[in-house]
Structure prediction request, 583 residues.
Amino acid sequence: MQLDNTVEVETPEHVRFRFRAAGPTRRAWAYLIDLLVRLGILLGVETVLVLGTGHHLRSGRAVMSGGTLLALFLIEWVYFVAFESGWNGTTPGKRVLRLRVVKAGGYPLSFMDAVLRNLLRTADFLPVGYLLGLVAMAWDGRFARLGDRAAGTMVVIEDPVRVPPPITLDPPPTQSELEAFPHHVVLPMPEREGIELLLRRRDLSSGRRQELAEMVAPVLGARLGMKTGDPVRFLALVHHVVVGAAAAADGNAKRRAHP
Amino acid sequence: MKRTQDEFVSARKPAWDELDSLLGKKNVLHKLPPASISRAASLYREICSDLMRARGAGYTSEIVDVLDSLAARTCAAMYSAPPYRLGALWELVAVGFPRAVRRNARFVAIAAALFVLPGALGFVGAYRSRGFAVQIMTESMVSQMEKSYSDLGRGREDGADAMMASFYVHNNVGIAFRCFATGILFGLGSMFFLVYNGLVIGVVAGAVGAAGHGRNLFTFIIGHGAFELTAIVISGAAGIAMGYALVNSGPLGRWASLRAKAGDLFAMIMGAALMLLVAAFIEGFWSPSSVPPPVKWSVAAVLHLLVLFYLLFAGRSSAARGHR
Prediction:
């Protein structure tokens, strides 16, 4: 989790949760995809018009340019409003980049918000290429362009999240590895958590993991009166044994409570 | 006793999964049976306390992220915005728009002055000297305008009416929206567009009048002008009101002051856009038709009165009955 672009909102129930606000680059990519979709729509309309009016050239020309202008109006002014209000704050481009427009309080945006934030694109675009919008974004902790500020909205990232798997020992402990441990191993909670944090981190390079483990393993080894061997493996084994002992104790306690 | 992350996850994950499946892919709750909704509400409260616990216990960010996203999704589903229905649009036309215009009467007056005064200046200038007209617009544009109003009122060729109507939709609604949106620059953009459009329209009218086709031009624009010019002024007024809310924010912050005004702005700009749609149809099909000028003038008079009475009186009676 990056701390610099998280936005905390508080609900009426005094619950606080966090969003990740989307920065200019990601939003520019989404805009680019939307631009391609809009060009595609225009191209589709043109194709239909050409095929449909090819035989009546005289009135056909008028229908062609009329249809084109109407299509231009729709993709220029209606496209974003229609998608953002109909698709709960997303457009095709935003879906690809997993972005969503929400109210600053974390609620879905209303039709009025969608209209305001998208009409003000005109102002954000000034003087060229969304320069003003970019300056406004740089000014704001939520990367709100002028339209977002007027409508009270923000664009958030909705990357898929998954519950991480529990810590497992891989490869499984051998009999001799387990027999080397004393009968009763107890680890204070903060130490156990420290080890878990190390084992859980998947973004650590193996060298760094080794380095960190080397600082801790000898201390534990001395306390338990054991040889440490590979420090990472040793810490994982200690964790395995401690968790197993705690689970067994828990089971015993339950059995005693309900004979 | 404090639980480790794995114990916490294995104990609580069933509840998270249940809420996740209740929300479903579409993230809506209101279509579920009542029992499921209240189940979702109690799960939401549980998940919120899980979130606090996870954060307080210092579990890894992955767990906190999972709970953050689940809480955010549930919150969004519980407090979802009411959908915008056709009834709301009717409400806007019948009540919201004219009331917003009346509430912002002083901005409408300022916008009208910024539009009409340069228009009058442009008209007088261009009428008296062609040199003035070509200062504002290019020589070729002035000539083209003079030519295009030299023979009007005989109807257009086949299909051209619909084409022009969509041209007016694209062009005029675009002008109105730009005129509004640039008001975020403390109202300056709106003022510029009002003055600019007023001046250009005045110059065109002056130049065409000087060339002796004033009657044609008047007959052409008088019908749709009631809607079109009024709508441009209203969208400019909305822009100026937006800028003013930023400048004179009262006890609120600048952006909060603007958001407090958002309802009025929305009503005004949507109303103006709808008026421009009406104007585009009149301008596309009626204004260029071969109907004799006196008929057009009388219809135009009726349209002007209609717009005036609509903006002055629509939505007043239901106020008396106590709707807000």
